[in-house]
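Minutes, project huddle
Topic: does the predicted pose make sense with zinc ion bound?
PN asked that the exact inputs be recorded in the minutes so nobody has to dig through chat later. Recorded below.
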Amino acid sequence: DYGMEKPQGSSVSFHYNPNVEYHHFGSSHPMKPWRLTLTKQLILAYGLEYTMELHEPRPATLDELAIFHDREYLSFLKNITPQNMESADNQAHILSFGFGGESNDCPVFDGLWNYVSLYSGASLHAADSLLNAQSNIAINWSGGLHHAKKNAASGFCYVNDIVLAIQHLLTQNQRVLYIDIDVHHGDGVEQAFESTDRVFTLSYHKFGFDKYNNPFFPGTGAITEMGPSDPANRGKGHTLNIPIEDGIDDEQYMWLFRTITGAVNEKYRPNAIVLQCGADSLGGDRLGKFNLNIKAHGYCVEFVKGFDKPLLLIGGGGYTPRNVARTWCHETAVCVGATLHNNLPTHLPYLQAFQGEENGGGVLYPDLHNTKRHENVNSVAKLNSIVRSAFENLRYIEG
Ligand code: TV7
Ligand code: CA
Ligand code: ZN
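Predicted holo structure (tokens), as shared on screen:
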């Protein structure tokens, strides 16, 4: 440090502990922590590490996690292993805490406690750097696990790092806006803050039923779901859900996002913003049903960056690892204001993962719109009616 002034404009901090990469949910499980290895390699290959401050955060402590989670749940989470989970004592709790079960969304794997404390520690550290004004955009691609409840694991999420980070931001900010572009509804964050007007939660997600009449996970997040209806509850109207159907395209999504997010920002006037950037809303995702390209996803980051408020960017879902890496690399570049070449750097380790026609032919921005060809069933009339309802829902936060 030569005592120079910090550069004007946005300064970006990147919070990442590489030990998260070494955890495995199981070979058939869609959540692959090594997508973070791919993301980091891409960011390094483009030289983005020179444009931001890098931090290797320590794991969160049990006491830090207990600010949101029940201690009973945490001590179970800390002690459960694949070896001891069969014991009668543990079997009695395992289902009620959201583990195992028929779908095995939340498996017990080796190093589980280490994994959850690493991604949560990174979100807390990122929030901290915003509070200390060390950066005005802080990034943690290993976090964003929005389904975890205070006493239960859900949908691949064990500890809710987003809730913890928002609670930390609330120590010095009156109002925090939470925006969630993961293809799934951000139910855990919504529920945690449903009774306060100091957090506004806004989630865009797929909502609806498949041909067997099963709801798309987690099944909540209808446009009518606006938080508690009791007028005495301060949280009333501080929840906004944007349900979307299969196959939404770039133009439609960007229009919905800027129209609604712009209005929420103007009316709510947050002091800080948390943006969950789940990459399962991309075309060609293994679990998602949207048709978005990387630059349309990144447009959401660009648009929110334009509000010029302290911004915490976190990861989330994303089940086609090479496209997760491309998207989060692009969004890191958006934050630092860099433009990246479409041709991937030839010195990129794992370059093979990005080569071959169906892998995107060695480019950063492959056309993802037609990869899986989910028919677009979002009509102009339906989208207009969603925006109308959203604006109507916003009247609760006027005046
Ligand atoms: C944030 N979808 C998390 C998204 C969480 C989605 C689900 C799976 C899945 C789990 C597997 C697996 C899978 C190919 C996909 C309702 C059920 C499903 C009946 C058997 N393969 C995020 C969670 C979602 C686990 N869960 O938002 C091990 O897909 O739909 C469900 C739940 C329970 C009942 N069963 C159907 O992106 C990070 N799970 C393979 C192995
Ligand atoms: Ca969402
Ligand atoms: Zn998701």
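Observations noted during the meeting:
- Residues 63 and 71 are 9 Å apart (CA to CA).
- The pocket of calcium ion (ligand 2) is lined by residues 180-182, 184-186, 203-205 (CB under 6 Å).
No decisions taken; revisit at the next huddle.
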